[in-house]
Write a sequence for this structure.
């Protein structure tokens, strides 16, 4: 199922993912706003993966990965370390086939995310809040259980699953001038760029990333892997480094990566809440922040944005200032 | 255009409203959630008027009323007193045909709502925050300008416009067992009940109202008009009294009015934000609060809810407790 050049999933693997996950995930709506179109002189389409199962596109990849496993492997369960949407997505996807999901979570994970993982039946092992502890704890859990690791992005079936969001989007809108996605580990971005490349090759894929976590931008422009060492961004889904599978796909099929300021992310997020009346998380607002910052040539263009998720702690919002 | 029995708009007036406002307002999406369906053993459909122009169904009625006026009248503009969504809706609708909108607003109206009315080109006159001052100020403005008053709900064209939301909804879902709307002045509710009656007569219309502003419930059950004297509810769109046109329609065509507690409204609102990832205002959450309170027999039923609007001050949310 590999593409010869990049090692990523081929077109057939993405079409198989569409079939495999179709009965389980939502076909999310595409929203538009005449106000926003007028502001930017463009036709802007937003694919609402915030309305996806578990509140994020991650449900697609996790479902594809879990349902791709042989039954003998599924009996031992699946495992990952994650403090974010992948943890919930994997627990949820495993529950669909009554498989166990072992989730290693840092002890400082938000209560809401811990509760959500438990709600989906995930079996949580807590670890210290650093990468070394996450990895050794995961290795131990896998040693004890025989579970199969499902990496949040550096996994062909995860990438093929995430790719279905862009394919579904482009099937609805037709070829776009520009298709935008945020970039963290690159699972969504690499999948998006493959779907555009295989099925709607006239569509340029542009990624957006926080200035304060711009490892993908630096890796892309230098064409050499640069890890995310000290990410300091509100966009909690975008703090990770690219992977050995996602980075080559991105290098080959992504047109450009642009970066945005923190204040623009908050502004864009609030704008989407106020004008579109939808709840998106900070990571989701990063591509629209790039448009608001004028980083993208919008005039006369048909532009798609994948709104990646909507999981936000509603107890406090980033534009609120408490003394 | 009157119905013989009630004095409300007839079927033709509603179909005319559909044609008249079609090019201007949004055909709003209908969302569903398998989680919510499972919780209540029902099929629940939500009509997202929070995604409507100006963020509320009020755009429908205001557009229908403004576009129904003769040109000679339009030249003198339109006028209303409102501190809520009708103010924005009328200013916006008037701007579509370059007519002036004179909006009388209480001096304690929220800054956001004042800014929105100005944004749409409305000409604001401030008054004291009581009904007497609102009415005398409006009378003075109309005396000076010759503008036509567009009442927020006690107006046939307003009712016919609001009725298009239910008609559009039922065209998408087909006949429902129950169709729910919140009730304040009764513009949305009377229109909803007329659309169900004329076009999908198998559909029972049930209204929901805050316990602490239950004048419509009392009026409905006693079959005699009882005004809203001391409404004390977070659902700011539902504090008004029924009107002489809306009340008889409601008496004739609404099946039941149920009431809900304040805490249920906040809980339902938060639930819709968290699970559906959409922003709805407190008034919008009142019908779903009734379902959460168990006031509606849901098992095996197909139930529609009109989510009336999404205009919320995002600086502070009702479930936040600050010291």
């Amino acid at each position: 199922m590999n593409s010869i050049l990049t090692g990523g999933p081929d077109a057939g693997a993405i079409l198989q993912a569409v079939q495999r996950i179709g009965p389980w995930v939502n076909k999310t709506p595409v929203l538009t706003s005449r106000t926003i179109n007028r502001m930017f002189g463009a036709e802007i389409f937003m694919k609402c993966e915030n309305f996806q199962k578990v509140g994020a596109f991650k449900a697609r990849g996790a479902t594809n990965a879990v349902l791709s496993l042989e039954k003998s492997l599924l009996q031992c369960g699946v495992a990952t370390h994650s403090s974010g949407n992948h943890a919930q997505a994997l627990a949820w996807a495993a529950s669909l086939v009554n498989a166990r999901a072992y989730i290693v979570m840092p002890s400082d994970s938000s209560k809401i995310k811990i509760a959500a993982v438990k709600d989906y039946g995930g079996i949580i092992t807590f670890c210290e809040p650093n990468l070394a502890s996450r990895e050794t704890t995961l290795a131990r859990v896998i040693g004890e259980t025989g579970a199969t690791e499902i990496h949040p992005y550096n996994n062909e079936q995860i990438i093929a699953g995430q790719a279905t969001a862009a394919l579904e989007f482009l099937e609805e809108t037709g070829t776009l001038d520009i298709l935008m996605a945020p970039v963290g580990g690159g699972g969504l971005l690499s999948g998006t760029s493959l779907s555009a490349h295989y099925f709607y090759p006239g569509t340029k894929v542009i990624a957006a990333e926080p200035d304060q976590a711009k490892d993908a931008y630096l890796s892309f422009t230098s064409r050499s892997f640069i890890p995310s060492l000290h990410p300091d961004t509100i966009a909690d889904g975008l703090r990770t480094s690219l992977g050995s599978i996602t980075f080559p796909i991105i290098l080959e099929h992504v047109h450009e990566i642009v970066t945005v300021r923190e204040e623009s992310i908050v502004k864009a997020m609030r704008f989407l809440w106020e004008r579109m009346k939808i709840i998106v998380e900070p990571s989701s607002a990063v591509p629209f922040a790039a448009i608001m910052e004028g980083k993208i040539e919008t005039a006369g263009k048909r532009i798609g944005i994948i709104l990646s998720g909507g999981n936000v702690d509603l107890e406090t919002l980033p534009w609120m200032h408490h003394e």
In short: The interface with chain B takes residues 29, 31, 48, 50-51, 55, 270, 273-274, 276-280, 310, 314-317, 319-320, 322 of chain A (CB under 8 Å). The two ends of chain A are 55 Å apart (CA to CA).
